[in-house]
Design goal:
Layout lengths: L2 H8 L19 H13 L15 H25 L6 H8 L3 H14 L2 E3 L6 E3 L1 H10 L2 H19 L2 E8 L2 E8 L14 E3 L4 H8 L3 H10 L13 H14 L2 E4 L6 E9 L5 E10 L5 H21 L17
Antiparallel strand pairs: 1-2, 3-4, 3-8, 4-5, 6-7, 7-8
Helix pairs in contact: 3-4, 3-5, 4-5, 7-11, 8-10
C-alpha cells in the first residue's frame, strides 16, 4: 500500500446536511389548507372566469383550478335536474364531457352535501332535498307574483278576459295574482281569495297533480259542497274529471262555481317539472261559449309555458303541457 492510497482511504467525507422532511398533514389540518386554496381561487385575475369547454385534461385543471370545478359541479347539477327519473354515472359523464372518475368525485362531494342523492336500487342520481329548499326559499310568494303578473297582463290583453294564477293550500286553492282584461264585464275576485278545488278549473288542475293515493285521501276527507247546480259533488264523477284533466292537461269550469262564469286553466311547472300552480282565464258565459273557451285554451297554454320557463323549466323540456302526478 502506498502513502497516497492510505491518505485516500483515511480521508473523511464531509457530513451531509440533514434532509428536511415535510411533516404529514393531519386530518384536522387539511380543511385549513383547502380554505387557503379557496382563498387563492377567489383572487384569480378577472379573466379567470372565462372557462374553457368542459373536458378532463390536466392543463385545464391547472389553469382554471377551483373555478373550473365549480363550473363542472353546476353542469352536473343541471344535467341531473333534467332527468326526473335519475341518471347513471356513465351517461352523466358523457353528457357533461368528463371522465367517469372526475364525474364520480364531484358527484360524491355533492352527495355528501345532500344536493344530489343516489337511488339505492338503480344507482342513478337525482336532485337532493337541500336544493329544493334553496329554490323554495328564493321563490317565495312575492317572487312568484312578480314573475306571474306580466304574463297574466299579456294573457288578459290577448284574450280580453280576467287572468288568474293560483296555488294549492290544503284542500283549497288561493289566487295569488290576477289581472283584468279590456272587456266590458270583468270578474272582481281579489288577490288572496280562497276557492274550493273541486268546482274550479284552477282547482281541478292542482287536483290532477296529486298522486292517486293523495287524490283518494282528498276525496275521503273533502266535503264536496255544491256552489251551483252544475258543481261536481260525487267523488266518482270528480275522480273521472280529474283523470281527464291529467290526460289532456286542460281543465274547464262550466258554471260550476258561479252560474254565469266559465273558466279554463292549465298547469304551471317549476324547474323540476313539478306542478306548483295553475294559470287560467274566466269570463261571462255569454262571451265565452264552450267553443270560444276551447280556442282560448291554446293561448292559456302558451302563457303557462312562458311562466314555467320563468320558474326555471327549460324551454325544450318535453314535460311542457303535461300533467304528471307530483312525487
Amino acid at each position: 500500500m502506498t502513502h497516497d492510497n492510505a491518505l485516500t482511504r483515511t480521508k473523511k467525507i464531509p457530513e451531509a446536511s440533514p434532509v428536511k422532511t415535510r411533516p404529514r398533514r393531519t386530518a384536522a389540518e387539511k380543511p385549513a389548507q383547502q380554505s387557503a386554496i379557496a382563498a387563492t381561487d377567489a383572487a384569480l385575475p378577472p379573466d379567470a372566469d372565462r372557462l374553457p369547454p368542459l373536458n378532463d385534461e390536466d392543463g385545464d385543471r391547472q389553469r382554471a383550478g377551483g373555478v373550473q370545478s365549480i363550473g363542472r359541479a353546476f353542469a352536473i347539477l343541471e344535467e341531473v335536474a333534467r332527468n326526473r327519473d335519475g341518471i347513471g354515472l356513465a351517461e352523466l359523464s358523457k353528457r357533461v364531457g368528463l371522465h367517469n372518475s372526475t364525474t364520480f368525485h364531484l358527484v360524491k362531494t355533492m352527495v355528501s352535501l345532500g344536493y344530489i342523492r343516489q337511488i339505492k336500487d338503480s344507482k342513478r342520481y337525482r336532485i337532493g332535498g337541500p336544493l329544493f329548499s334553496l329554490a323554495a326559499a328564493s321563490l317565495d310568494e312575492i317572487e312568484m307574483v312578480s314573475l306571474a303578473t306580466p304574463i297574466l297582463e299579456d294573457l288578459s290583453r290577448e284574450t280580453g278576459e280576467s287572468s288568474h294564477f293560483s296555488v294549492r293550500i290544503g284542500d283549497s286553492i288561493v289566487v295569488i295574482a290576477r289581472t283584468t282584461g279590456p272587456g266590458a264585464f270583468q270578474l272582481t275576485d281579489r288577490v288572496g281569495v280562497v276557492r274550493p278545488a273541486h268546482c274550479t278549473a284552477l282547482g281541478k288542475v292542482l287536483l290532477a297533480a296529486l298522486t292517486p293515493d293523495q287524490l283518494e285521501r282528498y276525496l275521503q276527507r273533502a266535503e264536496l259542497k255544491p256552489s251551483t247546480a252544475k258543481s261536481i259533488t260525487e267523488p266518482a264523477r270528480l275522480r273521472r274529471e280529474v283523470e281527464d284533466v291529467r290526460h289532456t292537461g286542460i281543465a274547464f269550469d262550466d258554471g260550476e262555481f258561479a252560474d254565469e262564469v266559465r273558466c279554463v286553466a292549465v298547469p304551471v311547472q317549476d324547474f323540476t317539472g313539478r306542478i306548483m300552480g295553475a294559470i287560467g282565464i274566466s269570463g261571462p258565459v255569454w262571451r265565452l261559449s264552450i267553443q270560444t273557451l276551447q280556442n282560448r285554451a291554446r293561448i292559456v297554454q302558451r302563457a303557462a309555458r312562458d311562466l314555467s320557463i320563468a320558474f326555471g323549466l327549460p324551454a325544450d323540456d318535453p314535460r311542457h303541457r303535461k300533467i304528471e302526478p307530483s312525487r
